[in-house]
Amino acid sequence: MKSIDLRSDTVSHPTPAMREAMARAEVGDDVFHDDPTVNQLEADAAELLGKEAAVFVTSGTQGNLCALLAHCNRGESIIIGDSSHIFRYEQGGMAQLGGILPHIVPVQPDGTLRLRDLEGAINPDDEHKPVTRLVALENTHNAAGGMPLSAEYTAEVADFARRNGLLFHIDGARIFNAAAAFGVDVKALVAGADSVSFCLSKGLCAPAGSILVGDRDFIRRARRARKVLGGSMRQVGVLAAAGSVALHTMRDRLGQDHDNAQLLAEGLSELPGICIHGQNTNFVFFSLSDDIDISLDSFVSALRREYNIYLSSYSGERGVIRLRTHYWIDRRAIYKVIAAVSSLLS
Ligand SMILES: *Cc1c(COP(=O)(O)O)cnc(C)c1O
């Protein structure tokens, strides 16, 4: 029986078209800027996001860290959401490796940071304080359940950053899910940002790799940061080839993942014992109601054992299960999950 894996969109495998492109890829030494497949992917990504230049990095974590190392000096501070991926799930790389201090502000339930909180987090020109260099957003916001941030909100933050002489970074690991959710050109979601990172893996299905975009001078510094982090690779066109297929053919179908997430949330919400907490973009999150006498862990392991359905009981919030739909989860799989949960709880 084929498994249905909803633990995350990071479990998505490369498509047959990607494997074919990988086999055919023209390659060269990318540290010498000699890999034509990487060069093309970087040029396409920069153009798509409306920025001057791009660099192919190993992961989203590396993209964010390269951005912060390229933007900030040691002892400087950045303003960032308290539940952001960069602050919570990247081992504090900015502090560990860059001597950069995170100044956290609360992430609102809709994934935004309040402008007055940002305002209050800027240090005055005072020799006791670290210099505030940058503000960062996350779109879609992971811990806010895949919430997309709008072009209007992003423009307000860009304006705030400009007025206050701050740089503006967007962790756009799933920025194309946000573009699909609003039905806008991704350029509109990153217009005022100095840098944006996004994942070619996850919903876009490439086996690995992320992209960081910004102006030419910034990208030159980010390439230096990538080198010292050990992320400069040689004939990496084999991976960039998959990334190109991801960038050109997988963005426009993300709406299907959102539709499937909605179908799943609706189906589950009709089952006694299930409390849906929310559904945004390709995320669904729910818990079991108190009158169900099966623990979350037994529920998750029974689905795996009896139905080959994989859910993750870890979500950052106790008792809440978070699912993410992706390319390899079709409508039939959604109906199977609803039926399995229904029979397990009956
Ligand atoms: C996945 C993710 C990252 C990190 O990407 P990796 O490729 O796993 O290192 C960064 N930010 C957000 C919001 C993510 O969801």
Notable features of this structure?
single chain, 346 residues, alpha/beta, Aspartate Aminotransferase, domain 2, Aspartate Aminotransferase, domain 1, 2 domains, 7-stranded mixed sheet, 3-stranded antiparallel sheet, 14 helices, 12 strands, binds pyridoxal-5'-phosphate
Give an overview of the whole structure.
It is a single chain. This protein is an alpha/beta fold and 346 residues long. It has two domains: 10-249, 3-Layer(aba) Sandwich (Aspartate Aminotransferase, domain 2); 253-345, Aspartate Aminotransferase, domain 1 (Alpha-Beta Complex). 42% of the residues lie in helices and 17% in strands. Strands 2-8-7-6-5-3-4 form a seven-stranded mixed β-sheet, sandwiched between helices. The protein is globular, with a radius of gyration of 21 Å. Pyridoxal-5'-phosphate binds next to helix 3.
Mean pLDDT: 96
Q: Give me the number of helical elements.
A: 14
CATH class of the largest domain: Alpha Beta
CATH architecture of the largest domain: 3-Layer(aba) Sandwich
The chain-level structural class is: alpha/beta
Ends apart, CA distance between termini: 23 Å
C-alpha Rg (nearest Å):
21 Å
Spatial sequence of strands, sheet with the most strands: 2-8-7-6-5-3-4
CATH topology of the largest domain: Aspartate Aminotransferase, domain 2
Q: What ligand molecules are bound, each kind once?
A: pyridoxal-5'-phosphate
Poorly predicted runs are none
- What share of residues are in beta strands? 15-25%
Q: List the helices and strands in order.
A: EHHEHEHHEHEHEHHEEHHHEEHEEH
The tally of beta strands, per DSSP, is 12
Helix content: 40-55%
Taken from the alpha-carbon principal axes, the silhouette is globular
The CATH homologous superfamily of the largest domain is termed Type I PLP-dependent aspartate aminotransferase-like (Major domain)
Total domain modules: 2
Largest sheet: 7 strands, mixed
